[in-house]
Amino acid sequence: MADNNTEEKKGPSKKELKKLAKKAEKDAAKAAAKGAKGGGGQGEKGAPSKSSGAQTQVKKSSPVPTYRLNNVPSNGISDACTLKACMASILYSTPLLPGGDTSDSLPFLHGPALLYGDPSSSSSTPDTIAFGGNSIIKALALIDNSKEGTNNVTNVVDDWLEFESRELRPALSSGNSKKITKVLSKIDTALEVSGGSSVINGSEGSMTVADLAITLSLLHAHSDNGVGILSTASSTIQSYVNLTKNHPAYTSAKKLIKKLLPLPAFDPTNPSLLAASSSIFASAITKVFPTAISLGLEIKAFKCKDIKHGDYQCNIAMPLYQKLKASGSLPEGVTTPQNVAQLIIDAVGDDNSVLCDLVVNGPGFIMSRVKTSYLEGGVNDIIKNGTPAQPKCATSGDTGKKDEKDVVVVDFSSPNIAKEMHVGHLRSTIIGESVCRILEYTGCNVQRVNHVGDWGTQFGMLIQYLKEEYPDFANGDMPNITDLTVFYKNAKMRFDESPEFKKVSQLNVVKLQAGDAECKLIWQLLCDISRIEFEKVYKRLDITVTECGESFYNDKIAPVIDEFITAGYCSVEEGGAKCVFVPKYKIPLMLQKSDGGYGYDSTDMAAIKYRLDVLDAKQIVYITDFTQGDHFQMVFAAAKKIGWVDDDSHRLDHIGFGTVQGEDGKRFKTRSGDTVRLVDLLDEAVSRMESSLKERMEGKEEKDKRSEEELHETASAMGYGAVKYFDLRRNPTSNYIFSYDRMLDTKGNTAIYLLYAHARLESIITKGKAQHGVDVDTLIKDGKSKIVLDHKSERNLGLHLQFFADSIEETLKDLFPYHICDFVYALSIAASEFVTQCHVLGSPEMESRLLLCRATAITMRQCFELLGIKPVMRI
Questions:
Q1: Which residues of 660-682 are buried (b: 16+ CB within 10 A; e: fewer)?
Q2: H or E segment and range at residue 407
Q3: What is the pTM of this model?
Q4: Which among 108, 300, 364, 501 has most CB atoms closer than 10 A?
Q5: How many Å apart are CA 8 and CA 266, to the nearest integer?
Q6: Is 499 exposed, middle or buried (0-12, 13-18, 19+ CB in 10 A)?
Q7: Shortest CA distance to 81 belongs to which of 43, 52, 53, 109?
Q8: Cβ(41)–Cβ(52) below 8 Å
Q9: Residue 369 parent element (H or E)
């Protein structure tokens, strides 16, 4: 799983780039002046000429002794060998650089991490030091021993390293509880003798090489293998391991791993244009400037904001120039960032399959175009496979999908029993469904959870009100509750006005929690009636969700409280309330109220425990209004504090959404001030859409008119889709004004515009068959015709189609569906430009262009599916 809390290193900010640009201009001016005096071969203002790449030679300086770490896996954090090496590098003050290609000189070492020194001037063979985690940390400690007064490796340390590799590691990987208990017992005994912080007596307060090896193996087994070793280990061992986990060097080591990861090689099976262009630039940069990656610079391409300048750009030349200059390692002849950029362009060359037309822009930006032949390959694959190419996500491995065993729980919708769903539930339901579809598309095993409010003090008054209003319900006279909102309001009114009713209601709560048969029967009845009303909304919006309400966790709360008490993390406050304080928050989580009752904090802690332990969730996503943001951050912090969550193997997300507002900027309500029922809101959208379609039908020939049934079905798809898209196309954290006129507009960024654009493409395809005898399905089946992107608009549409994979990758970072909305809207604009600029039907290129229409329609339908919008083939 992706690490939700791992800090992602970003490229230079706009402000930094402006500073670098000014500096670059000054350097360029100096270089130009120097060139004018000495004939440096520079163009005007010091900018390199097209041939400057041949004139600028990189002169290699004498090699400086360095240590490199090779064979670092792409999932470095989950690799114990690499983590050991990186933490030892920091503890023993021996910097590590990324490894190079040692396959020719050291062909026998392709397994665990490999530590070696750069070849000396007299030899081209790397100076191998050690391979394997324990050997590397020992080697790094011995290097540190060269410093006066240090003694990191002793015979006792060697004995414990032998124990870690021959006893501890095999036992942990076996999963055999007896073997694990035996090895942990040996560690426990050593810790008791030494004071608890080290297995080596006399080393209290310091971390030895042995402690590093042992604790990292325990952490690795606990988090990566899913064995859960530490949750069953003694408190002594847990504290011992936490000394390493909480050590600053542990966090620094995980960051160092990212710098040592092998640069991604170009993968022709990965449809991501961003990945392809980034890998090509990275390969060229490290070829010309081998130390670039060790300078802390992220080598990455960016999509150009203005397509007239290029498709993708690389901005590393300026910061790389500054870093090289500061370290005194600028190659001979390199005097400006433009020189650096030109050398990179020369290294990219023309023989790569993706990029072309590379030029230096301004003070060192490298602009490029994607080769038309590469785009043609991508769009023809859409036709061949019948679907846009699925991205290789960051956690997907070689299969292009996440491990099916990776469970992701998505908690969304969550209405309250005995209350009808209203506009306040709209965003959670719509966003949650789309998030589930996106995660399922990338291969996750998604558990769709409807955490309904079906427990709590309000049920006491509801039970009592039903008893009084329908006294014969127990004899089969079942209540006909057609309006849950009115029923709830009337019960609440009685509760507020009658002290006697209130008292009896409170007693009903106690009876319900104790399992009273009559109270349980009424509670179940109210739940069943509510589900029927919820289903009316879910059916309209095509929502799939499994109910697992607050009541499910009621018997799981007490054990959670006991666990916090045992761990020493639960304090009993004045009045008897049991609370857990977490970092950065002054107000605690209240696991149990002073009266012994449970609240949201109690239920949510029990729920996250169940989802992590029983469902084995690697990721949990909560979708609620933004006001609950602090609450969930506290829940996440408490789960980490108790040890349920490991940053390396779990991801916890809260998507907090803004308010749906009326035209007055306040919460959306009816004219009478009541909350808008969600069913009514959705039906109104369909009704308005149906009226609009009927107006469009007037004046059309009889053969082009739709039946009432087809018209209603089309209006439903478009009306519901319009409501969904109007929400999904914006950042969920923002508020928005609900407007039927805007969401049902046929122009602009609306679902109606997109559905019309899609139907237009399918209409062209239909006419191609009816009027010109060209059947796209036959073309695809025979495979005789290919898409050719000769025209400017054809190429632009092909480029936008290829952006699909990157839009999915971007969405997975924050789980905001608006990234997909942005993509499909831009795609529809490119498609509209294509059919306007390029004559399709009857043209010499008709077959190719009809296939391009189909490739676009296929991709749009995939986006609609991810957004939960039903496509319309004709309007």
A1: bbbeeeeebeeeeeebbbbeebb
A2: strand 407-411
A3: 0.83
A4: 364
A5: 22
A6: exposed
A7: 109
A8: yes
A9: strand 365-370
